[in-house]
Amino acid sequence: MSYQKLIIVGNLGKDPEMRYMPDGTPVTTLNVATNRRWNNPDGSKSEETTWFRVTLWRKDAENAAQYLTKGARILVEGRLTPDKTTGGPKVWTRQDGTAGASYEVTAERFTMLGSRAEAGGAPGTAEAPGEYEVESEIPF
């Protein structure tokens, strides 16, 4: 038996996108940016941003779409979902000719970090509890 678990903490790059499968199952996609900063030997500072496309299902999808907005800080636990063709991330060429990659994650759990007001929501808006866990496995 093999096992993998990915944990990311980052910010939403745009509002969640919720849709429904033909059978009515809700699914929400999040674009989450993680940042790494470091000092170079010459004293200059560098930064690297990695984007993850996170998929949430069922009640998690509904909660994310209802309570998360662009800029929200989130912790996601899940598994990498490789491209069926390449076995790795989805790779494409941007309009400017540079390479891009999408790291696809199927969420097993997510936690909202910070308040909705901090994420750009209306001050005083009620929030749902911060942690959600997937109810069952999705076979695709």
Please, could you describe this protein's structure?
With 140 residues, the chain is mainly β. The chain has a single domain (6-133), classed as Beta Barrel (OB fold (Dihydrolipoamide Acetyltransferase, E2P)). Helix content is 7%, strand content 49%. It contains one helix and eight strands. A five-stranded mixed barrel has the order 1-3-4-7-5. A hairpin with a 5-residue loop joins strand 6 and strand 7 (99-113). Residues 119-140 have low confidence and may be disordered.
* N-to-C SSE string, H for helix and E for strand: EEEEHEEEE
Count of DSSP E strands? 8
Question: Whole-Å distance between the termini?
Answer: 19 Å
**How many helix segments?**
1
Task: Tell me the number of structural domains.
Answer: 1
Regions with pLDDT < 50 over 5+ consecutive residues? 119-140
pLDDT averaged over residues: 82
Described by strand count, sense and barrel closure, the largest sheet is:
5 strands, mixed, barrel
Q: Based on CA inertia axes, which overall geometry fits?
A: globular
Share of residues in helices? under 10%
Q: Based on helices, strands and strand pairing, what is the structural class?
A: mainly beta
CATH architecture: Beta Barrel
Q: Which strands sit side by side, in order, in the main sheet?
A: 1-3-4-7-5
User: What Rg do the Cα atoms give?
Assistant: 16 Å
The CATH class name reads Mainly Beta
